[in-house]
Each structure stands twice: as C-alpha cells, then as structure tokens.
Write a structure and sequence with these properties.
Blueprint lengths: L1 E5 L3 H12 L3 E5 L6 H7 L15 E3 L10 E4 L6 H8 L8 E4 L12 H9 L3 E5 L4 H5 L4 E6 L3 H11 L4 E6 L2 H23 L4 H21 L10 H12 L4 H10 L4 H8 L4 H16 L4 H11 L4 H9 L14
Parallel strand pairs: 1-2, 1-4, 2-3, 4-5, 5-6, 7-8
Antiparallel strand pairs: 6-7
Helix pairs in contact: 3-4, 7-8, 7-9, 7-10, 7-12, 8-9, 10-11, 12-13, 13-14
C-alpha cells in the first residue's frame, strides 16, 4: 500500500525505512527543506546517521504528498504537531488510517498527541509506541511495539503494516494508557539522567524508575487508562529503555543538568528535541488538574522551569513523609 510518514526526524525516518522494506510504497515528508537534496542524492538523513534510505523511498516537502495514501503516520516533534496536522489534513484521504508515533502532551490544553491529531484531521487515530530507539530499529535489531486503539480493526491494520522478523507488534485497546506511558516516561528518563549527572548509583535509578512508573500509572488510571497497560511495552518497557540508554536524548540532557548546566544550555547542547522538557510542564499541569500526586514530575518541573537546583529537589523528595508502598490487606 501507499504510506506517508510525516516527519523526517530519527524516529520517522526509521519507520519510513521499515515500512519501505516491508514492501510498502513510502513517501517521507520533511520540514527541513535544506536537507532534502542531500537525502535524495546521498540516501542518508543526518537525523539518523548510519541508516541508508532505500532507493524506492520518496522524500517530499509538499503537504500534498499524503494524498492517495492508505496510511498516514504522524511523526513530528510534539510542539509543532497541531500546525503540521492542520496543513496536511486537507490532503488526507477520507478512508486513510492515521497513526500517531509522537510522544508528548500538548502545552496549554494537556491533550494527548492522538487527541490533537484527531481534532485537526477528523480521523480516528492509532497510537504506535513502545521501547524503540530509532537507531536500533534502523539496524533491524529485535524490537517490540504496540498499536493501540479502541477500534480493533484499525489496530490490527497498523500491526500488519509494521510487523516483520525484526519488529514484533502487539495490539491494545488502551490508547490512553499507551500514549501516557510514552509521553511521561520521557520526564522520568530526564530525571534518571539528572541522577547520573549528580553521581548517584543504580539503587537511586531503580527507585526513581519504579516510583516514576507508579505516578505515571496513577495519572493514567485517573484519565481512564487500564492499570495493566503500564506493566507492558508502552509502560515499563519504554521506561526501562529510555532511562538506561545513551540513545535517549532525555537521559543525556538530564546528565548535563545534573552536572551543573542549566536546562536551556542542556537543550541547546543536545541539538535536537528533548520531549521530556516539554512534557514535564504539561504533565505537572495535568496532574494538578486531575488531583493526582506526582512528586517526581513536580521535581522535574521545578528544575526545568523554576530554576531550583537538582540537588535541592532530590533532598526534598527524600525528606517526604514516609508512606506505605501499597495498601495493607488481611491475609488468610
């Protein structure tokens, strides 16, 4: 089938390559017009070094390139997603399946990315997510992802489009949980990097990841997600890979902050979008709106937006009133 991938960052490029190798006719839309001639001629995208763009993969700067596609994959960063979707929407076929692979929460509205895409395109959206570094997907290293949608037929359509020997795809009816897990793990991964930069050890990171997953699930359940989703690929799976790998821009940015750089310096040094930076503010606002306690997200917000030193928020977290990890029950 004909497929458009809207967004030529590392993840969008890796997915475009995968879909082309799966036998689909793929066009990759790029906002970075200055890079397109080089990509066409050299078959290399500097956003994903080392990966070769297949000869059959088309590259376009025109929004109209999505016209006639049976599947449209939205793969932009989170902050321009609404504008991009608004521009491509007139060209998306009425019967096209629209997929969001974007991980984030919209600033101001606190909407999930699929909700933004649905508002702008008027299409039901399938969420595609999981522990999947673009670099490793491009190298065809074994990877597992989830196609999540309450419409089973659409989820299975996307599953079939992506699945191959190197990419195992599961379906899920819980798009809310899958998408929140994908967005909020970036915040925890940024914090994990901060602990690395501060010189803390494995014990600290294990505590951070576990308690971070708890507050992600707590917020997700308050918004209608299934608690079980956070024990799967879109939850703990994505959290593990993002908190522990140097492929993770969120973790690397956190390391710089832990080492003493201010957030803006860290973002500039990364030279690419760090989604956890944007998600921290939106997640903190969403948590307050839902009345959900999110101490790690609170810490990230204060470091990133209020200028509080990372060592200070760690001290505050460690001095919180001791609590039970889970409710006691009467054992028989």
């Amino acid at each position: 089938m004909k497929v458009a991938v809207v967004g030529s960052g590392a993840w969008g490029t890796a997915l475009a390559i995968r879909l082309q190798k799966n036998g689909h006719q793929v066009v990759l839309w790029s906002f970075e017009k200055d890079l397109i001639p080089g990509m066409r001629e050299n078959r290399v995208n500097p956003r994903l070094p080392g990966a070769v763009l297949p000869e059959g993969l088309e590259i376009s700067e025109e929004y109209s390139c999505v016209s006639g596609c049976q599947m449209v994959v939205i793969a932009t960063p989170s902050f321009p997603i609404r504008g991009v979707c608004r521009n491509v929407a007139p060209y998306i076929d009425k019967d096209a399946v629209v997929v969001s692979v974007v991980k984030g929460i919209e600033s101001g509205t606190q909407l999930r990315m699929s909700q933004v895409v649905e508002e702008e395109t008027n299409h039901k959206v399938v969420v595609f997510t999981g522990p999947s570094h673009a670099e490793e997907v491009a190298l065809e290293l074994p990877t597992g992802c989830v196609a999540a949608c309450d419409n089973r037929e659409l989820a299975e359509f996307v599953q079939k489009a992506f699945v191959c020997d190197a990419l195992r795809v599961y379906t899920s009816p819980d798009a809310v949980g899958a998408e929140l897990g994908a967005a909020l793990k970036n915040v925890i991964a940024l914090c994990a990097g901060v602990t690395d930069g501060l010189g803390y050890g494995d014990n600290t990171k294990a505590m951070l990841m576990t308690r971070g997953l708890t507050e992600i699930a707590r917020l997700g359940v308050s918004l209608g997600a299934s608690k079980e989703t956070f024990a799967g690929l879109a939850g703990v799976g994505d959290l593990i890979v993002t908190c522990t790998s140097m492929h993770s821009r969120n973790r690397r940015a956190g390391i710089l902050i832990g080492q003493g750089k201010n957030p803006q310096q860290a973002m500039e040094e990364m030279g690419a979008v760090v989604e956890g930076y944007y998600a921290a503010k939106s997640a903190w606002e969403l948590g307050k709106k839902q009345g959900v306690e999110m101490p790690i997200t609170w810490a990230a917000y204060n470091v990133l937006y209020e200028g509080v030193p990372a060592s200070k928020v760690v001290e505050t977290l460690l001095h919180r009133i001791p609590k039970t990890e889970s409710e006691y029950v009467d054992w028989l």
